[in-house]
Amino acid sequence: MGNYKDRGILKWTPFESLDGRQNTLEDYIFNIGKKEISQISSDEEEEIDKNLKIALAENKIVSITYYFDGYTYTTLGKIHKIDLINKTILLDTEEVISMDDLLRLNIIEG
Fold first, then answer.
1. pTM value?
2. Digit-coded pLDDT (tens) for 48-61
3. Which has more pLDDT, 6 or 28?
4. Which of 38, 42, 55, 69 is a good FRET partner for 27, with 20 to 30 A between their CA atoms?
């Protein structure tokens, strides 16, 4: 073992060419899971509108499920402002959600 000489950083140089491969693989996995936005019924739309008005008037915490870039996300927060011109909702967490992308809006009791 006394004659062993490590090649140091040289032994890892062949793997440096794989950096782009990892990013490409992550992008592929992200894109393959994307789905089209599901259309909501008029009843669901009325329920969202009703809950939106109640939550804003009574300063309630809401659970919002929305569509963004091929995926659905759920967030919690209080509605800080509704921008009817840009059709967006601003939460107290400073998240901005497009009204066109809303799938569900439920009031959290508590």
1. 0.72
2. 999 999 998 999 99
3. 28
4. 38
For residue 62, which of 48, 43, 41, 42 has the smallest C-alpha distance?
Answer: 48
Return the closest-CA partner of residue 92 out of 68, 106, 75.
75
| Lookup result for tokens 């508590």 | 110
Site of tokens 């919690």: 76
Say how far residue 84 (Cα) sits from the centre of its chain. Answer: 22
Tokens of residue 35, six digits:
């789905």
| Residue 22, strand partner residues | none
DSSP track, 19-42: HHHHHHHHHHHHHHT--PPPPPPH
**Contact (CB, 8 A) for 100 and 88:** no
Assess contact for 80 and 91: CB atoms under 8 A. Answer: yes
Which pLDDT score is estimated for 39? 86
Burial of 89 (0-12, 13-18, 19+ CB in 10 A): buried
Torsional sign, CA 9, 10, 12, 13: positive
